[in-house]
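go over this:
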Amino acid sequence: MNVEYTGRHHKITSANRKEVDTGLAKIQKFLGDKFEAKQLYPEKIRKNMNNKHWGVVLVGDYTYGISEGKDWICQDLKSGEVKWDNKAKVERGSLTCADGFLYCYAESDGEVALVEASPDSLKLKSKFKITKETKLQRGQGAIWTHPVVANGRLYLRDQDLIFCYDVRAQMAAAK
């Protein structure tokens, strides 16, 4: 992680490559233009969430996302402990969160899984697949766009195609 101070703002960057661990850092400003970044997880814990480009969301005190080799995981933000991992129920991809649910968008075929955001286990509520797949060539054969939920509607994109689903009734039924 690199932290730059330009006199006007802070710039925090991290690389998302396989060889870079993910962790929790505390950034503290001292007098003047001096900053210190302190890694809060021990090295072993930093290897728990090896997320490349799929994204991670924070719900309460837990992060949810894809970790290379473990697929979907739930990690305690404070300790870094993995609460659960999943290798079968939900295909890897990008995600977003709304109303206590994770919307997991599969990178291979556009399947969307509605998962309850719970540190106890992966609680799959429902699945559906986008109604049509692009005919354009995908970068490395994958859908890498992130789902968006706004005003009770789920927005998905697969290259040149955009989908909008009213998910208010599904969210209410899943609760």
User: Anything to note?
Assistant: The chain has two helices and 15 strands. The domain at 50-174 is CATH 2.40.128.630 (Lipocalin).
